[in-house]
Amino acid sequence: MATRIKSKTIAAVPQSRDDCAATIRKIGDMQRAFERYRAAMNDEIAAITQAHQPALSELTARIEALQGGVQAWCEAHRVDLCGEGDKLGKTVNFVTGEVSWRIRPPSVSIRGADTVLDTLLRMGLGRFVRVNNEPNKEAMLNEPDAVRGIAGISIVTGVEDFIVVPFEAQAEVA
User: Fold this and answer.
1) Each residue of 100-123: pLDDT tens digit?
2) Contacts of 68-73 spanning 24+ positions with Cβ under 8 A
3) DSSP H helical ranges for 77-105
4) Residues 99, 91: contact at Cβ < 8 Å?
5) Where would I find the H helices in the chain?
6) Quick one: average pLDDT of 57-67?
């Protein structure tokens, strides 16, 4: 993990090459300690989640079963609950809560986008094809003189980052 210095807070400035090497070692030690703490935290979270998962699954199943029963009863008595015709309501208040019916807004689902695009264009339905116009930053970097002086465009060069990377042995999990 590389460390970039972003703030001006400096704990201590090494006084020699050996001090600098020792400080880099300390950074590496602290980064590895950080990762050990993070791994321990994630292990605890996983254990807690696993311990509570059976109860959560059972409660979810029971809730879904009760909701299904409430929906079945409300659907059977919708006219009594909501009225009919122009007076048809969408929400019914009970003492302990409410139920409501909502119609989802229309949506479009597309599978095989490339084929759909080809078919729309072939059938003369190009109005359903979106064309994105956006600045091409890569081309501007290749020809910076062509865009120099245009308001809103600036080519940033020569920014230098200082990065400390302590040496670590890499181990792969098979």
Assistant:
1) 988 888 888 899 999 999 999 999
2) 70/99, 71/99
3) 78-82
4) yes
5) 17-76, 78-82, 113-122, 137-142, 144-147
6) 96
